[in-house]
Amino acid sequence: MWDRKSLLSASQFSRSDVEEIISLASRLKQKPERLCSGKILANIFFEPSTRTEKSFQAAMYRLGGSVISHKDAGSSREKGETKKDTIRILSSYADIAVIRDNESGRMQEYTKAAGVPVISGGDGSNEHPTQMLTDAFTIKEEIGRLDNLKVAFIGDLKYGRTVHSLMQLLSKFSGNEIFSIAPASLSLPSDMKSMEAGRYDISQLREALAETKPDAVYCTRIQKERLNGEKGSYVVDSTLLSVLPPHCRIMHPLPRVNEMNVEIDADKRVIPFVQAANGVPVRMAIIAKMLGGA
Description:
By secondary structure, this protein is α/β, with parallel strands linked by helices. The chain folds into two domains: 134 residues, Aspartate/ornithine carbamoyltransferase (Rossmann fold, 3-Layer(aba) Sandwich); 148 residues, Aspartate/ornithine carbamoyltransferase (Rossmann fold, 3-Layer(aba) Sandwich), CATH 3.40.50.1370. 34% of the residues lie in helices and 17% in strands. The strands form two sheets. It has a five-stranded parallel beta sheet, sandwiched between helices. A five-stranded parallel beta sheet has the order 8-7-6-9-10, with helices on both faces.
């Protein structure tokens, strides 16, 4: 069971924890409540962000709280201050902290340094647990369930931290089938391959989607900033959508680069911007639960 002292990994959550967050997020989406009035959130970002940073900021404001923000540019980090010292300082000014890092696996260390509840805003190629919960909320709202799903993951599955987190979450529900479609050099890490019900090369994309008939397609960009010589590319366009079931939803955690053609945005099955907007009520629910407001 989730102890609400930190939110760093999908492994912290039971099925019931996920369902509680989704239920509260649904309530707050319909009618925001000032559950964190007088509280301060520190957004500590050592890696660029648009959706995660701004949605946490919007979430805290809608809960009645305030936000202080950090980016390395213009801060004492430019003078050589360590990340841990920056975290110690900023968390001492706040009641809860969101930390995003370009390195993998240091969130436990940062949590000890902070001394307040810490939420991971994503760490390197490891995990992105609040995006995972946003994705689960979106699937539940759009498809109506989190059990007995066929989900196809496309793109950079090696370094895609949103993929790693969502796959782990789906494994907590029953009857789900996960299909991976990726360049050979960007397939799932070896310790996650057991989750696959089927594996396809990116060159088989159309055939894979036609064969699996997924309920959801989860697209990810090729993360060039993390590559070590690996290569890969793909494009989701109207020809691919033609082989997908009418009820299927096409998701993307954004930013998209060239892997999703804007021509498909008008299709009601394409929901990356719905998904992004859902980040606010989900993060409201997370903050409120961790600060005892819900």
